[in-house]
Amino acid sequence: MELDDLKSIWKQDKPGFQPKQEEEIASMIKGRSNSIISKLKRSVWFELIFTIVCGVVLGVYALSLESGALMWTIVSLIVLFVSYLFYYVKKIILLNKFDSSSENLKNSLQHLFDRLAAYLNFYKKSYAILYPVYFCLGLLFGALESGIDDFFHRLSQPKIILYLVGLAGIFFFCTIWLTNWYLKKLYGNHLYKLKELLNELKG
Amino acid sequence: MKEHQGLIHKVCILYETDREVRNDLFQEIVLQLWKSFLTFRGDSKITTWMYRIALNTAISGLRKLGRKIKTEELDEYHFNISESLEDHREDDLQKLQWAIRQLTEIERAMIMMALDEVPYDEIAETIGITQNNVRVRMNRIREKLRKLMS
Q1: Residues of A in contact with B138 (CB under 8 A)
Q2: Every domain of chain A and the residues it spans
Q3: What residues 86-105 of chain A have any CB closer than 8 A to a CB of chain B?
Q4: How many CA atoms lie less than 13 Å away from A44 in the CB half-sphere?
Q5: Which tens digits make up the pLDDT trace of B49-88?
Q6: What are the residue boundaries of the structural domains of chain B, listed by start?
Q7: Which are the contacts of A19, defined by CB distance < 8 A and separation ≥ 6?
Q8: What is the residue-wise DSSP string for A16-40?
Q9: Which residue in the set A36, A105, A192 is minimally distant from B126, CB to CB?
Q10: pTM here?
C-alpha cells in the first residue's frame, strides 16, 4: 500500500468528530492546564507558599522561646528555608520562560526532560540528604543544651545508641518513602517516558 | 482555531482512545494554542504551527505509559465491517486510524503530517530531525502500516 492510497483514505469527506462550537472553545480557554510545565509551576508555587508559612510560624514560635537547643534548631531551619525560597523563585522564573511553541518536538522534549529531572533530583536530594542533616542538628543542639559531657556519657550507653539508630532509621525510611510516593503520584513514570521518546528521536 | 479544529481532532483521535481523556487532550491543546498565539510570527503556515503545538502537547503530556491495544477496540474494528460502499470507506478510515495507533508516538506524528500533505522539510523542522531521516523513517512507517492493514 502506497502513501497516496493512505492519503485518499485519510481525506474522506466525512469528519469522524463532532465540531466544537465557538462558546465551547471559549470556555476551554478559561480552563486549567494539565501540562507538565503547569503542573511543575503549581507544585513549586505550593512549596514556596508552604515554606513561607512554615517559616513564619516557626519564627513566631522561636521568638516565644528562651535561648536553648529548640530555639537554635528552629533558627537553623529558618535559614535553610530562606535558601529554599531562592531556589523556588529561580525555578518559577525559569518555568515561566519555557515556551514549547517556538521549539521543535525534539528540543521541547529535551528541555522538559532536563527541567523535570532537575526538579526531581532536587526533591530527592532535599529529603534524602537534608533531613538527616536536620536530625543531626537536633542532636547537636540537644547535646549543647544538656552539656557535652552528659551527652557523651548518655551516648556511651548501648540502649541510647540503639534508640538513636532506630529513630534515625525510621526517620530516614519514612522521608524516602514519602518523597518517592509523592513524586510518583505527581509525575508517575513520566521521566522514563520522556527519555524513551528522546532515545527514539536520537536513534 | 475554529476553522482548523479538524487538525486538533485528528491528533486527539490518534493519541487517545478514551473519549473523556480525548476531550481533556482537546482542551489542553486549545489552551496551549491560545497561550502561544502571541508568539506566532507567521513565518510558517498556521497549520504547521498548530501541528507543532498539538503534537508537542499530545506527546509530552502526562498520560499513562505504553498503552496496549485494547481488545474491545480490536473487536469493535473487526466486527463492525459493513457492506455498503459508504461503510466500506468508513471501515478503511477506521482501519487506518487503528493501524496508526499501533505505531510509536513519534511515528504517529510523522505519518499524520505526511497524510495531511505537510512537506518533508516542514515535518523535519517540526520533529527536529533531518529530511533524510524523515525519508528513512517514513519508509519504515509505510512498511509497518502495510503489514498492519493487510
Answers
A1: 3
A2: 34-202
A3: 99-105
A4: 25
A5: 899 999 999 998 865 444 444 444 444 444 444 445 555 6
A6: 1-66
A7: B5, B6
A8: SS-PPPHHHHHHHHTS---SHHHHH
A9: A105
A10: 0.76
